[in-house]
Amino acid sequence: QVQVVESGGGLVQEGGSLRLSCTASGLTFADYAMGWFRQAPGKEREGVACITRSGVSWNYADSVRGRFTISRDNSVNTMYLQMNSLKPEDTARYSCAADGLRGRTFYDFCKDASMVSNDYWGQGTQVTVSS
Predict the structure, then answer these.
(1) Which of 38, 82, 85, 93 is deepest in the core (most CB within 10 A)?
(2) Residue 37 contacts residue 96 (beta carbons within 8 Å)
(3) Which pairing describes strands 125-130 and 10-13: parallel, antiparallel, or unpaired?
(4) More confident residue, 112 or 19
């Protein structure tokens, strides 16, 4: 049974930092591209950052490039998102997803993870940035 669990969210002031973690079990973690996605109230879900199976390549949304850093440690089945210089517009529920990239490219996954089965999504962690 696949389990994906996020942690590390919270309330932070504008300009502050948070580090999110996403741990997956029940799958061969190194076989999956991983991604962070966020959804704010009244808005559609958007891709934030994603990372390839080996961790040597990644992709960022324009809105977070230069402020967020994605990484992974396949030895502990965990992906991270270091978020610096946080802004109020970063407030959202952040979820992580795992994708085996069958029938789609890494960049397809980064832009739109709607094809990922619900079993490969976490429940999300709330990030709130106050001004």
Answers:
(1) 38
(2) yes
(3) parallel
(4) 19
